Predict the structure.
Amino acid sequence: MMAAKRQSPKKIETDVLIVGGGLVGGTLAVALDAAGLRSTVIERGDPAALLDEGFDGRASAVAHASQRMLQVLGLWDHIAPDASPILDIRVSEGGSRLFLHFDHREANGEPFGHMVENRTIRAAIHKKLPKLPNVRLLAPAQLDTLERGPDGVSARLVDGRHIHAQLAVAADGRNSALRRDAGIGVTGWTYRQSAIVCTVEHERSHGQVAQEHFLPSGPFAILPLTRNRSSIVWTERAELAPAMMDLPDDEFMAELGSRFGDFLGDLSLVGPRWSYPLSLQFARAATARRLVLVGDALHGMHPIAGQGLNMGLRDAAVLAEVLFDAKRLGLDPADGAALANYERRRRFDNFVMLASTDWLNRLFSNDMRPLKGVRDLGMSLWGRLGPLKRLSMRHAMGTLGDPPRLLRGQLLYDE
């Protein structure tokens, strides 16, 4: 006989209400549990559907610092068997003979990061959350109303349940309803590009090397997955992407192969293909009264540097640290000073990443001859200047600046 499903109470008291149980929102809940804070996660999707292979074909680059965070939170052991280390990064452009090569042996021998399919990370989160004493996951569940008052947050779900919290976190994606309802505007623009994403199997080993090949239509990335497989992020002009997606598999693979090359031997398509429009956007504020934005609700960037998930995890790490420090001092987790600290710490970091990815995409996504000369000269100098090259490697690993404790692989408290 099957055990009866545990029913959630009609009235739930919690410290933090997280709206969105995706990669960032779910990881934040794990981090808050480690900080001794109660959280309730509302996720619209059915967990079984979210873990299906056809739901999300993307893979993410988990930077070295992000991997340390997932390790200390007890998530990495579930992810590691399906994670592929990135040992080297090779950057090239069009028909140019010049290229940049970043060797992990020049970065203390540590991988720059790992390529992980999104559903693997999502599965690790959903396996972990039910085991945590301070986390309640409501999924599938849908928010009906949310009121943010001077003394707390009051939420009502469509099914009639009520949640009272001290703070609400918007982890509900680029089109965040919580951000909109709080009156927080966004600044952004479209790139007139789409990302075509798929997985290919190849005859020869990729050697754990990530390839970024710049073409006039945008970057074409070949990212190492487990076994002889690679994740492809193919940036194409927005007006051409639908035609590429409509091609039969053999014609699609011919187009992909002309960009991929033959250095890994014969190619075959594994699973479906997906296409996503590319744009940049950032919220004009990271906080409002008793509300914090994280992940895509706060910022969305071009995938050219593979840093989207890592920036969301940095949001989660900083927020968990800020809230833990407030709790340790006996303060309200939604204390104005605590939220101002989060806003300050994330604003500059996110701005720099958004600006640099935007600049790189504009610089390389064209075939203008004057800019090609500048790019070739820049790549040549970049490869020869040791300090600049090492700075780039630290950037790829996520260890620049003063990262929060979780990204240094440290617990928020001493055991």
The chain has a mean pLDDT of 90. The radius of gyration is 22 Å.
